[in-house]
Design a protein that fits this description.
By secondary structure, this protein is α+β, with helices and mostly antiparallel strands. Helices cover 34% and strands 17% of the residues.
Length: 212
């Protein structure tokens, strides 16, 4: 017979109090991501930013530093990143849906934001937290340019059906054809559709097993 678990309400309450105090005493975003722009160090951890990030840290803005200047913290506005503009031709942006500012910050320019992501022209339907909001490469899309910025005509993806064999395997196949007296009029190629179908069939057999 299993022993009855003892109820310890005082210990449970003490654990909840410890968790609450730890939550209250943890550093806020305004402390964690504060930056000394002269030494390029974070005062809380004394960690220094990489040298490649110094220029952007002085010239670009963090996400909340942009949103705190707008009515309703920019809910409904479109933001993008400089790194996305340089790396991709397709539109990449966030539509801000929710903001939770750190009200202990001097200008309320720290906190978290949520929104809907469109990356390389593909829009996600689920709202999620905007990551890397503390990076200094965020840019606000002007309201009169949002429609033009979001315009995108998807290019149909080219699907590859055939691939060439590796050199040694190709030589073996050609030698076999020559031995069989077959006329070599075309290059031997791998049919990816058949290869994938056979792989799925084999994996299905392994999971199903054989009857005993």
């Amino acid at each position: 017979m299993a022993r009855k678990k003892l109820q310890r309400p005082i210990a449970a309450m003490a654990e909840k109090i410890r968790q609450y105090r730890a939550l209250k005493e943890r550093p806020r975003d305004s402390q964690r991501f504060a930056l000394d722009y002269e030494s390029m160090r974070r005062p809380l951890t004394q960690k220094r930013l990489p040298a490649l990030a110094w220029r952007d840290a002085r010239s670009e803005s963090r996400l909340l530093a942009l949103l705190c200047r707008l009515p309703r913290f920019g809910v409904g506005r479109t933001v993008t990143r400089k790194s996305w503009l340089w790396a991709h031709d397709e539109p990449c942006y966030w539509v801000v849906a929710k903001v939770r500012a750190d009200y202990t910050a001097e200008n309320m320019d720290h906190g978290k934001a949520w929104g809907y992501l469109t990356f390389r022209g593909k829009t996600e339907k689920v709202m999620k937290e905007i990551d890397q909001a503390m990076y200094h490469d965020w840019r606000m899309v002007p309201k009169h340019e949002e429609e033009t910025f979001k315009k995108f005509t998807p290019v149909p993806e080219e699907t590859v059906r055939y691939l060439p064999y590796p050199p040694l395997l190709r030589a073996m196949i050609l030698a076999q054809w020559q031995k069989e007296g077959r006329a070599i009029t075309e290059e031997p190629l791998i049919d990816l559709k058949k290869a994938v179908a056979s792989h799925l069939q084999e994996s299905k057999k392994k999971t199903t097993g054989t009857s005993v």
